[in-house]
Amino acid sequence: MTRIVAGSVGGRVLAVPRAGTRPTSERVREALFSRLEHLGAVDGARVLDLFAGSGALGLEAASRGASAVTLVEAARSAADVCRRNVAALGLAGVVVVAAERAERFVERPVSASWDLVLVDPPYDLAEADLAAVLAGLTGALASGAVVVVERSTRAPEPAWPAGLRRFDSRAYGETAVWFAEPGATPPPAADEAGPDA
Fold first, then answer.
1. Angle of helix 76-89 relative to helix 56-63, nearest 10 degrees?
2. How far is residue 176's CA from residue 178's CA, in Å, rounded to a whole number?
3. Contact between residue 125 and residue 155 where contact means Cβ atoms under 8 Å apart
4. Got the DSSP string for 55-102?
């Protein structure tokens, strides 16, 4: 069972797609949003939830005070579940973009920039495809925006594009969560540099 952890609709149960998605566990969502709220990244934020699945991450943000949330899901069946969850929770300011791949969505021009982006792709998404999504975001981020990438702990660190740099990472069991912000990627530290550095 998947539930909203906290906020205005905390405790409400979410429908989940029958197959093809991997909902973020309550434990991980609770830890993730605790960190995001500590950073001041949720309340009043414009949030983009890519690879939304059931919409649990974006709806958690809406429950905790995000001003606008866009859920992007390529699979029609999962997007239908997102719509049902949005309607059942009655949260204002939540939009579902159905049947559109994240890679395509981030190529669109946006009228206002994102304050928080939640990227939770299938674990089997190729690293190059994830890198393309992250690169597509860089021109659409507000100053001080936070980008969160959720992956398996067995996956490598995402390849951050120019204009986006990691500032934190956490591991929760089999789940790795990476936090990034707009800015230049710092050069590798001396002990991380290759032998020819």
1. 20
2. 7
3. no
4. SHHHHHHHHTT-SEEEEEESSHHHHHHHHHHHHHHT-TTEEEEES--H
Lookup: tokens for 86:
């949005």
Whether 194 has a pLDDT exceeding 50, the answer reads: no
119-142 exposure pattern, b = at least 16 Cβ within 10 A, e = fewer: bbbeeebeeeebebbbbbbbebbe
Spatial separation of the C-alpha atoms in residues 71 and 83, rounded to whole Å = 9
Which pLDDT tens digit goes with each residue over 58-113? 999 999 999 999 999 999 999 999 999 999 999 999 999 998 999 999 999 888 89
Average pLDDT, the chain: 91
Query: Three-class SS of residue 25?
Result: coil
The runs of H, that is alpha helices, within the chain are 26-38, 56-63, 76-89, 102-105, 127-137
pTM of full prediction above 0.85: yes
What percentage of the chain reaches a pLDDT higher than 90? 82
